[in-house]
Amino acid sequence: MFLTDLEIEAIQLSLKVALWSVACSLPPALLVAFLLARGRFPGRVILDVVTHLPLVMPPVAVGYGLLLLLGRKGPLGAWLHDSFGLSVIFTWRGAALAAAVMGFPLMVRAMRLSLEAVDRRLEAAASTLGAGRLDVFVSVTLPLMSPGIIAGILLGFARSLGEFGATITFVASIPGETRTLSLAIFALMQTPGGEAATLRLCLLSVVLALAALGASEWLSRRLARRLGMGHDRG
Amino acid sequence: MIEVDVGARSGRFQLEAAFSASGQGVLALFGRSGSGKTTLLNILAGLVRPDRGRVTIGDRVLFDAGTGIDLRPERRRLGYVFQEHRLFPHFDVRGNLLYGSRRAPTNERSVSFEQIVELLDLGRLLDRRPTGLSGGEKQRVAIGRALLASPRLLLMDEPLASLDAPRKDEVLPFVERLRDTLRLPIVYVTHEVGEIIRLADQVVLMSDGRVAATGLVEEVLGRRDLRPLTGIHEAGSVIHARVLGHDERYGLTQLAFADKTLLVGRLDLPVGAAVRLRIAARDVSLATTPPQGISILNILSGSVVEVVPDRDSHMDVLVDVGERLWARVTRRSAADLGLAPGRPIHALIKAVAVDRRNLGR
Predict the structure, then answer these.
(1) Do both B104 and B27 map to the same domain?
(2) Is residue A31 domain-resident?
(3) What is the pLDDT of residue B23?
(4) For residues B131, A138, B148 and A229, what is the CA-based torsion angle, rounded to 10 degrees?
(5) B39 within 8 A of B4, measured Cβ to Cβ
(6) Residue A232 domain-assigned (yes or no)
(7) Range A37-66 burial, b when 16+ CB lie within 10 A, else e
(8) Residue A114 and which of A174, B14, B81, B178 are 20 to 30 A apart at CA?
(9) Which of A121, A129, A233 sits opposite B100 (nearest CB)?
(10) Of B174, B79, B94, B81, the residue nearest B133 (C-alpha)
(11) Which residues 168-227 of A are in CB contact (within 8 Å) with B?
(12) How many beta-carbon pairs below 8 A join chains A and B?
């Protein structure tokens, strides 16, 4: 199968953006999932609502919000630029950020559900065996909720691959910088005579999605067996 | 020394418990379900925080509301065997067993992996997953896991309650073994009289969140006034005896207590071994003259201490034959025999009345 330079560029960029967005949102998503599942503090409902906002808001509106916040004149963007010389707008980092924000509620939901399903009596047992709180979390809670973490990563990854509205609003569609697979498909559609190339990119995105799905399925089956939730011996 | 004086409230349930016990041997927390036994155990373990009071074990203060001391469970170094095994599904048996021992301070590791595997017969199970084990096997692994953390005291919350009768008989000898070989003090929650007779030295009797009585097993279980709380509807007495010898020809074992001997069904115990047995009042008959031509092997002479009318047509009679025994007779028999305190009497006990379930060491 021969891919054009443009196709390879779009796939590489998409993977880079998706991996970075998942990697960077995983720790905060885990923390928020933990706070929402276990925390008893004032403002929990507000945190819950804010976390879910990107899920219910139009992606374009989210992108515009990011633009206001992180643009050169935005409060956070100006600070980042002045203090670190860092700019996310119109860069692949910005694309990763937009994808992370859009995927965040999905990741939190998956992890929160699995965390709520963890048997807290096992954590109590671990503490009587000499494990401190962090130790219990790492050695018991995390492994037991790992199927939910895998599911969260897959959802975040898929959301990132498919992300369009927030990305194009926030970082535009710059070839080689922010033009991910979805944005490239859209750009080709606008080009006269680009039908065949559009179709090829669509098929590529199907292959990519199936590969991600297959990998996560394989991983979660393995985990389920390890956790004794599979079908091996009653 | 275990000293507890705590108050805790959860919903409408109020626990107000105070007792002290020697921190040796097996201490049974006994009472009906809902009497607060498990809550008390969780307070000892640090899994439930009391509203007031103080908990000390040996010279260590585990909880003191006054000074604000509240050691976290992982700092208390108490082993806990739960009613449900609570094994970690993501580790195999070996991983479960080693979980606590890896976290125990090196200089406090009192037992070795091999020793515990041998003691609880876990060798075959080491590479298996908890999901594949039977109930009895799971509970043995859970006991091993708690022991390998080298605890200073072992807490057991009805470890046999989730098992059926054959599995109970499978696990119980292991509990006896660890009591006898490791010399580890144990706090054992149960509502089964049989388990107390077999295992315990001291009893704390719980009722409605309060301690109704504390003392040696034979004292507390022999007290007639506590019967509504112990749930032992039948009177009975617990006595200490020693194996005197075996009669292989008839399959009998001769026990000695005070200056008397007692024949019971063959026991698989060495000569000289100490046993404790419970004799139900209904298995003891009384006679004013030593009867002859009778199938009952045990005829013990003594005197009547007390005669207590029961609700219905019966009388409970306490007789002293060196140890104190309760006998249950009809009102009519009591009148015919003229039973009254001080009257010389012969107590008749069938050898078959004492079985393994009523025996402890």
Answers:
(1) yes
(2) yes
(3) 81
(4) 0
(5) no
(6) no
(7) beeeeeeeeeeeeebeebeebebeebbbbb
(8) B81
(9) A129
(10) B94
(11) 226-227
(12) 75
Residue found by looking up tokens 């406090």 in the block: B108
Please tell me which residue of chain A has the smallest CA distance to B144. Answer: A129
Q: Give this prediction's pTM.
A: 0.81
Given the structure tokens 């606590």, which residue do they identify? B100
Whether A233 maps to a domain, the answer reads no
ipTM, interface predicted TM-score of the complex: 0.81
Q: Kindly state the tokens that stand for B201.
A: 């030295």
Q: Is residue A210 part of a domain?
A: yes
Task: Supply the DSSP string of B172-202, one letter for each residue.
Answer: HHHHHHHHHHH---EEEEES-HHHHHHH-SE
B250-295 residue pLDDT tens: 888 899 988 888 888 888 888 888 888 888 888 899 999 888 888 8
B251 and B192 within one domain: no
Q: Which residues contact B33 (CB under 8 A, 6 or more apart)?
A: B191
State which residues form the domain around A57.
Answer: 5-122+129-226
Residues B58 and B28 in one domain: yes
Average model confidence (pLDDT) for chain B?
88
Q: What is the predicted pLDDT for the residue at B74?
A: 94
- Which pLDDT score, from 0 to 100, does residue A232 have? 34
CA distance linking residue A152 with residue B147, whole number of Å: 38
Q: How far is B301 from chain A (nearest CA, A)?
A: 52
Residue B344: burial class (beta carbons within 10 Å; 0-12, 13-18, 19+): exposed
* A233: closest chain B residue by CA: B132
Our count of domains for chain B comes to: 2
pLDDT digits (tens, 9 = 90+) for B166-217: 888 888 888 888 888 888 899 999 988 888 888 888 999 999 999 999 998 8
The CATH number for B258's domain is 2.40.50.100
Contact B322, B239 (CB under 8 A): no
pLDDT of A224 above 80? no
* Judgement on whether residues B263 and B211 belong to the same structural domain of the protein: no
Helix (H, G, I), strand (E, B), or coil: what is residue B141?
helix
Q: Closest to A129 (Cβ–Cβ): which among B46, B99, B129?
A: B99
Residue range of the domain that includes B62: 2-230
The CATH number that applies at residue A154 is 1.10.3720.10
Give the pLDDT confidence of A26-82 residue by residue, as tens digits. Answer: 999 999 999 999 988 999 999 999 999 999 999 999 999 999 999 888 888 888 888
Identify which of B76, B78, B129 has the shortest CB distance to residue A228. B129
